[in-house]
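Onboarding guide, step 5: your first structure request.
Type a short instruction followed by the sequence, for example:

Predict the 3D structure of this protein.
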Amino acid sequence: MNLTLPRRGDELELVPTEVDDEGLALARLVLGQGEARRRLRVMIRGAVPGDRVIARVESRVRDDLFARVARVLTPSPERVAPRCRHAIYQSDRPFCGGCTLQAVSYERQLALKHERVRRALASAGVALEVAAPRPAPLTFHHRHKMELSFHPDVHAGGEVALGLHPPGYKWEVVSLAECPLLSPEMSAMLPALEAVFKGRGLRAWDPRRDDSFLRNLVIREAKRTGERLLELVTTPRDPVETHDGPRPAGALVAELAAAIEAAARAHGVTLTSLLWTCQHAERGRPTRFVTTTLAGKPVLSDALEIRGRRLDFDIDPRSFFQPHPRAAEGLVDEVLARLVPSDDASTRTARLVLDLYCGTGTLALSVAPFVGQVIGVELVAEAVADARRNAALNQLANTRFIAGDVAATIGEPAFREALGELDALLVDPPRAGLSPPAFEAISALDAPRIVYVSCKPESLARDLRRFHERGYDCDRPAQPVDLFPQSHHVETVVSLSRRA
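The system replies with structure tokens like these:
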């Protein structure tokens, strides 16, 4: 029996029941009978779990169909009206796809994230209880960083637009009228920021040609100190073509900076830092960033509150900082609960902690007051420099940071010999999880305890299964932590102990 599989343009009536690892509503479709049966997954843009929809097929890859909502027949009971106008798919126009779950009630968002973690573990054969997700203290206006892109607006004669790339669109941006992930003041200021660059004849960066200037506009907002940083990122092109002819880049940027500051004042926004960064990207050479402080400070100052203690951070424009700092405080609390059960320094159970993939040291510095010593390892030298600077800022003398590849660094016999008796490993790897060399090197350390922080349940499940095969058991339920409200992303904290 030959099955006729759905093709582009076909319409299907479906009820999605879950979300996939890209945040799309997922329905399952069974065609045929017996040996000819085909089980298809259908990912539906514009739908939420529980909707009954007519979905129009756009493409198929083997047994995966990709579709878009044509119309909603019966909305899900958990469907809510999105707060942001850019969170809804309208007709076939692309729009911002960052908030994949904004049309779902927050309670349902947490349930979907819980189910995603549980399903990933079960699929990998990991028998582990999953606790209810720790909710975010703020579900809107929480974002620390937003990187907006410039691109020619084809609907406005090639005039520059400023916004975000929608899913699947590399060369287009959605011009933002608002973004409720930012503070209300900064969200309201977005159209005025775009207006600063319009009408000047400026070109947005396009790798297909070499006559452009504007690349990105980066917004950072500190949630504990209230500071705000804006960074204009450009190519090194000088002079710059404008409607008024070639202009020196420095003079043009000074004019743009003055217009940005005027727009900020008009919207009641105080900018503590205004920076200009030239990104030098040449084929075959490392990318260089040359930053000039146009106004205010060269860094953004923020803080985390960890178990009643304040931890200060000076955040460089190139540095990573937690996207939801207030929720990150809860993440650190979950990590500490597995490293140091008590807040009493006299009962410290972790004398030496090795923090792998430590980045700018957010986790290492946060746990340092509660343990004997923390050693961080990170590939990016600039991040290590930031970690050292912030350790000094907080007078944390029990920290040490090493720049180097994790697998190569901890695999060195000299490193292991100098390390001494290790009490715990803190592992916060990239989304892909631990590479085979990194896993082998970590296993060779034979640490009595591992606390694993994951940003992707599927890679977490794979790594937990491998650790179990090497003699480790999970000793507490997995704890999801929501650092990304309105999206499908979820962090998970797991602790493992070495079997006797």
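Each response can be followed by summary notes, for example: Residues 106-123 form the longest helix (18 residues).
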